[in-house]
Amino acid sequence: MPMIERQDTGAVARLTLNSPERLNALSDDMLTALADHLAALSEDQGIRAVILAGAGKVFCAGHDLKEMTAGRAAEDGGQAYFRDLFNRCGAVMMAIRALPQPVIAQAHGIATAAGCQLVASCDMAVAAEGTRFGVNGVNIGLFCSTPMVALSRNVPRKQAFEMLTTGAFIDTARACELGLINRAVPAEALEAETMALAQTVAEKLAGAVRIGKRAFYEQLEMPLEQAYLHTGDVMTRNMMMENTAEGIAAFLDKRKPEWTQ
User: Fold this and answer.
1) What does this protein do (predicted)?
2) With CB atoms 3.0 to 4.6 Å apart as the test, which of 73, 109, 156, 187 could cross-link to 128 if both were Cys?
């Protein structure tokens, strides 16, 4: 049974974490599989949107604590293993951000610790009503420092800090309010609603979305003046695309654009 199942529907790829018996924990094997799939997608010109889902009862329960405990058997008590694990997990989260295609988390059940980090690392997120989110490592004496990176870049800092220091869960209504997810939908509609969002994105000009996603994250790290200068350059490059010229002409002519993707 593959650790991750990929299913393509037109220009949308769905990656499903497929270890339900371990609550889709981000084990060594899961991180490796996810990294491999993201690398393949980054080169796939036929895919224009990606959905990240979880099999079974939950989306993702974070790191595999049993596997981490076994790592303590090393001579150094697991220090090298833990550093490598957290660095590889961070690399996967950054690969999601670097992926040319928008990535949408399809969350259900729970998304805890590194699982919440995974949701926060995606460009958008749709959740089933009743899903719970938390960075609850502090409850077992492990502050969620790496999940904090993605979380604090999604929700206001005081609310993020409260979640990190109390270990409390938030529901989908609160997750929407804080900006961790885009919307909550009935559980029975989760897959269809997420796919509808992905297909809407996939229908846009791929070149424009790719350049736009990269610029979106780049400008967030810049001072205001630099951000405007940078995005002005980005829009100029975008305007020079033949497909963009066709899109504008089609709009003015009140017809559908004939893009060559």
Assistant:
1) May play a role in fatty acid biosynthesis and insulin sensitivity.
2) 187
